[in-house]
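Dear colleague,

As promised, here are the two records you asked about, laid out in our usual form so they can be pasted straight into your sheet.

NAME FIELD: protein one
SEQUENCE, THEN STRUCTURE:
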Amino acid sequence: MTLNPDELRKDFPILEKGGLVYLDNAATTQKPRQVIDAVAEFYREFNANVHRGLHRLSQKASSLYEDAHETVARFIGASDWREVIFTKNTTEALNMIAQAIAEKFLRPGDEVVTTIMEHNSSILPWVRISRLRRLKLKIVSLANSEELNYEELSSAITSRTKVVALTHVSNVLGCVNDIKRVVKEASQAGALVVVDAAQSVPHMPVSVKELGVDALAFSGHKMLGPMGIGVLYLREDLANELPSPLPGGGMVSEVSLYDGKISYVEAEPPWKFEAGTPNVAGAVGLAAAIDYLLKIGMENVEEHSRYLADLTVKRLREALDNRIVVYGPMKRSRRLGIVAFNVDGINPHLVASYLDSRGIAVRSGYHCAQHLHSVLGAPEGSVRASFYVYNTRRDVDKLVNALADLVNEVDSVGNPS
C-alpha cells in the first residue's frame, strides 16, 4: 500500500484530539488501536507467566511470547528467532551486551571505538566498562559537523580494537551511518560491531544479516509498540558463547549443590538472557506493531520519513533564513526523519514551550547527547522535530509558521507572548 498519513491517523486515538501536532516521535511514537487492542486482549484473555506452568493459560502465553520472537526475527532479517532477546529497552540491551562482551573478551589495554554522535545509552556503557577494565576508548569525530568521519574511523580501528559501537541513525543529526562499511573495516581487525538501531529499525528496512552486525538493539515504543519492551539481536554463535550478565530465575537449565557450593548451567539463547518474568504483553504489542508497519511497507515508511524531514529543512531555511541553524546533513538521502535546529538568540526550551502553546509537540534540550551539542556549538541544546507515519505536510507547515511567528514577536517586542 502507499502510505496515506490521513488514513493512518484514524487508527490513533490520541490524534483524534483536535489540534495536536505531534513531532516528538524520536522520543516515543503514538500507538494505533491495533496495538492497544492486542495488549488489552492479552491481559483480558491470556494473562499468565510464561515457561512456568503446564496449565492452558501459561501455555497460551508462552506460545504468544515465542511467536513474538519469531515476528521480530523476520522483521529484522535474523537467521533464527533464538537470536532475538527481549529486554526493557535499547538502553538495557546495550548495557547487557557491553557487560557480556567485557566479561568474555576484554582485557586491559584493549580498545573500543565509538563516535561523538552517540546517545548516552550507546556510549556510557563503554565509558563505564573502559574504566572498570582499563580499556582505551576512542571517540571518532564528525565530518563537516554533519556525519561520521569515516577516514578517522578507519584510522581508529587497529589490531587492538575489540569492539566498534555506534548508532545507525543519529537521534540529533538524523544522519544514516554506513554500517556495512564499518562492519567491513571492523571485521578486518577482528572486532565486534554493536549497533544502536533505536532510530533506524522503526524508520527503514533493516536486515541484520545484510548489515553483518554482531549485535543490534532497538525499542518497541519508538515504532508504535508499547513502552517497556526492547530487543537485543545477538548473532547465534556469539549468543551461545557469551555469558548472561543477568543471572536469575528462568535463565538456567540446571542449578546444583555440591560440597557446599552452588553452581549453575545457563539455558540456551535467548532464554539465558531473559532472566525473570518478561514483559509478555509488551512483546505481544510489539508483534502487533510490526504487523501494522509491514502492512504499510517499510520502504514506504522510510520514504515518508525522508520526505517530511527534507521538506522541513527546506521550509525552515526559506522562512527563517539566517535566523535558523539546522544540524545534520542537508542531503535528503543522508537524513532520516529527524530535524534538530536552533533559532538564533532564543533558548531552545523557550522555543519548545512556545510551540506547545500552539499545539505543537517537539523535544528540546540535549536529547541525551550533551557531548555532541558541545561539538556543534549548541551549549544550551537544540529543538528537535521528528516524524512518523501519521505526520503530514500540514504538520510541517504549522511548525514553520509558528516559528516564523515566534521570531516576529521576539523582533517586535523582545519576548514571545
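NAME FIELD: protein two
SEQUENCE, THEN STRUCTURE:
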Amino acid sequence: MIEQTLQALQIIVETVPVGTNLALIHLMWSILNGSFLGSRGAIFPALQESGFEPEQIRRSWQAMRYGAWCIDEAVAVMA
C-alpha cells in the first residue's frame, strides 16, 4: 500500500522540476501519513514527525514557498 501511494505521488509531481518534485513528495507524504494532525498544521513539526532530516525539511519548505510548480497541474494529473 505504501509503495502504491508513493508511486501515485510520483505521478502527481512528474511535471515539477527536479529537486522540487522530491521536496513536494516529502510534504505530501507528511500530509497523507497524518503528521499534520499532530502538529496542528505546522509544516516543520509535521515533516520532523515524519522522520525527515533538517535539510530535507528546509528543502520541502522552500519547494512549497518558492518552488516552480502549480497546483492546477497536479490536480489535472490526478483527474
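A couple of things worth noting about protein two: The CA atoms of residues 52 and 63 lie 15 Å apart. The chain has one domain: 2-78.

Best,
R.
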